[in-house]
């Protein structure tokens, strides 16, 4: 709810073009122009390179735990927090498509493991893709329901045999200052980092997503591969992961570095623990509704996934460990 | 220049310009072109225009001082009322659309959320200014007292910028820009007050 600047509000504020290398900006325009010419018609922004994902299991036990109605694809692909591509929600879908991630997309897995490894995206996808229809509750009080396609995080992590010292898993996003906002502009430390406790990472609900709505991820949604932990606030879902590290101590997180009392390490969805600046009791489920503003509804603890994850936090003070 | 400033046509044009953001908003609503989160969009849109019109209104006096054009003052009331108008839309968006007229929730927000507290204060300070904006009220209060009361607008400006600053997550570039503009506008007044205070009052003979 809080992030600003839109194209059509006569904003005399900063635009992406003010802060973007000209090559990228121009490439984007060329890219958009070529795309429009090729299609000869309106297309959803941001996923011109989308490919259908085949061989996806849609009948797993966690496929649709809460039987929610999926959010419109246009909502999920045009309303994004991806500060590297602009801090306005509408900016990543405009700016991220120009980015061309390395097609092989090697992910380095290292740290407290017996055999550090570099695994390419294609090999990760071969580990077995599942569709998971999950709620995503943003710390800013909006939510969507997304049909993700991904592989369980545990499946990948088990490949590298973590040692007994591995207590946490740390993730890092790809970052290139030539193609993205600087940390100063974004107002947060970059590259973006996140982390999970080992048992959280091994929970069957935690997945590495490579697609949505049956297709590969659009860049603004975190292509080529991102974390999805549906019982946690959306910012835990680190995008465009390039490095995974097993560590002994609780790793730093980008939003925690920004303000640890506002964005705790656990960041579990919890209507009883307010963000210091706003209440978390309710959320706006985007899509449909009056003027297309969605539906206001009460937020549920662990975002409705308590049966699957509450045991991870048994006996913990959820206010202190927010 | 003075002729242009005192023309009723110029005033009509400024009035229409002041309404343009509202007209544009109605158009976006009609077209349902309100982004994926219309509640947020309308809230930010009306909030932005409240702050912008308030800053534009606060530009009148510095322009008068710098360019020595007293005629420009006749736009001040209208611009101030536009700030109040957009502020009212912003508040009503929150009261009706966001909080859906639930008094309890709103009260909790006002008490517990500093950015809402300060935003509400910024709006509350504009209410007496809007009410006493008529020539009748200037007469009733007497110009000196009226002028004193209307210094409340400085409070609204500062509180409005803080309201924005405290609600953004991390990218403070826009609130910082508004804050910088406000600092310049208030700075001009401070400089003037200081230089006037230093000037010895010429003895009357």
Kindly describe this structure.
The complex is a heterodimer of chains A (322) and B (205). In chain A, 19% of the residues lie in helices and 21% in strands. With 322 residues, chain A is of the alpha+beta class. In chain A, the strands form two sheets. In chain A, strands 1, 4, 5, 8, 9, 10, 12 and 13 form an eight-stranded mixed sheet that branches. Chain A has a five-stranded mixed sheet with strand order 3-2-11-6-7. Residues 1-46 of chain A have low confidence and may be disordered. Chain B is mostly helical and 205 residues long. The radius of gyration of chain B is 19 Å and the shape is globular. The model of chain B has no long low-confidence stretch (mean pLDDT 93). Chains A and B meet through helix 3 of A and helix 2, helix 3, helix 5 and helix 10 of B.
Fold blueprint:
The complex is a heterodimer of chains A (322) and B (205).
Chain A (H helix, E strand, L loop, with lengths): L15 H4 L2 H18 L16 E2 L15 H6 L13 H4 L10 E6 L5 E4 H5 L3 E9 L4 E11 H5 L10 E6 L9 H4 L6 E5 H5 L4 E6 L2 E2 L9 E3 L12 E7 L6 H5 L23 E4 L9 E4 L7 H4 L13
Parallel strand pairs in A: 1-4, 2-11, 5-12
Antiparallel strand pairs in A: 2-3, 4-5, 5-8, 6-7, 6-11, 8-9, 8-10, 12-13
Chain B lengths: L1 H5 L1 H23 L7 H30 L8 H23 L4 H10 L1 H18 L3 H7 L1 H7 L2 H16 L5 H26 L7
Helix pairs in contact in B: 2-3, 2-4, 3-4, 3-9, 3-10, 4-6, 5-6, 6-9, 7-8, 9-10
Largest interface, chains and sizes: A-B, 41 and 39 residues
Q: Mind telling me the C-alpha Rg of chain B?
A: 19 Å
Query: Biggest sheet of chain B: strands, sense, closure?
Result: none
State the order of secondary-structure elements of chain B, H for helix, E for strand: HHHHHHHHHH
Count up the helices of chain A.
Answer: 10
How many strands of chain B? 0
Distance from N terminus to C terminus of chain B (CA atoms, Å) equals 36 Å
Which range does the strand content of chain B fall in?
under 5%
What is the helix fraction of residues of chain B, given as a range? Answer: over 70%
Multimerization status: heterodimer
Number of helices of chain B: 10
In this structure, how is the largest beta sheet of chain A organized?
8 strands, mixed
């Amino acid at each position: 709810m809080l992030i600003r600047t839109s194209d059509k509000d006569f904003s005399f504020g900063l635009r992406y073009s003010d802060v973007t290398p000209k090559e990228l900006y121009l490439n984007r325009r060329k890219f958009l122009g070529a795309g429009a010419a090729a299609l000869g018609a309106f297309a959803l922004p941001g996923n011109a390179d989308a490919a259908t994902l085949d061989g996806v299991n849609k009948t797993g036990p966690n496929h649709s735990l809460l039987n929610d109605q999926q959010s419109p694809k246009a909502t999920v692909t045009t309303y994004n927090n991806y500060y590297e591509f602009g801090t306005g929600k509408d900016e990543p879908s405009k700016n991220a498509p120009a980015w061309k991630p390395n097609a092989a997309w090697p992910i380095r897995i290292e740290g407290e493991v017996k055999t550090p490894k570099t695994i390419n995206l294609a090999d990760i996808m071969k580990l077995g893709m599942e569709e998971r229809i999950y709620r995503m509750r943003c710390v800013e009080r909006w939510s969507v329901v997304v049909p993700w396609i991904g592989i369980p995080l545990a499946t990948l992590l088990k490949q590298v045999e973590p040692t007994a010292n591995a207590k946490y898993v740390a993730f890092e996003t790809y970052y290139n200052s030539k193609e993205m906002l600087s940390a100063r502009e974004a107002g947060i430390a970059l590259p973006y980092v996140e982390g999970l406790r080992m048992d959280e990472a091994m929970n069957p609900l935690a997945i590495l997503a490579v697609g949505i709505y049956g297709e590969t991820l659009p860049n603004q949604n975190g292509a080529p591969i991102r974390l999805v932990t549906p019982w946690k606030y959306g910012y835990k879902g680190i995008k465009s992961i390039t490095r995974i590290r097993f560590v002994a101590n609780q790793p730093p997180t980008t939003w925690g570095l920004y303000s640890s009392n506002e964005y705790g390490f656990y960041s579990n969805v919890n209507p009883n623990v307010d963000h210091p600046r706003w209440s978390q009791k309710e959320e706006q489920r985007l899509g449909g509704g009056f003027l297309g503003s969605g539906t206001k509804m009460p937020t549920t603890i662990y975002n409705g996934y308590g049966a699957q994850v509450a045991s991870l936090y048994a006996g913990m003070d959820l206010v202190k460990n927010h | 220049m003075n002729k242009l400033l005192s023309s009723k046509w110029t005033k009509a044009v400024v009035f229409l310009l002041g309404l343009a953001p509202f007209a544009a908003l109605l158009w976006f609503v009609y077209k349902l072109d309100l982004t994926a989160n219309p509640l947020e969009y309308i809230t930010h849109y009306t909030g932005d225009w409240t702050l912008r019109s308030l800053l534009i209104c606060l530009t009148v006096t510095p322009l008068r001082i710098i360019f020595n054009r007293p005629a420009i003052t006749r736009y001040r009331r209208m611009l101030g009322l536009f700030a109040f108008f957009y502020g009212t839309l912003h508040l009503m968006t929150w009261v009706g659309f966001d909080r859906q007229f639930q008094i309890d929730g709103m009260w909790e927000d006002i008490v517990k959320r500093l950015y809402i507290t300060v935003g509400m204060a910024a709006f509350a300070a504009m209410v007496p200014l809007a009410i006493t904006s008529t020539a009748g009220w200037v007469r009733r209060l007497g110009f000196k007292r009226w002028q004193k009361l209307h210094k409340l607008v400085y409070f609204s400006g500062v509180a409005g910028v803080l309201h924005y600053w405290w609600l953004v997550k991390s990218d403070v570039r826009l609130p910082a820009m508004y804050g910088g503009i406000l600092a310049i506008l208030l700075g001009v007044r401070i400089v003037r007050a200081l230089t006037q205070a230093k000037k010895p009052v010429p003895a009357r003979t």
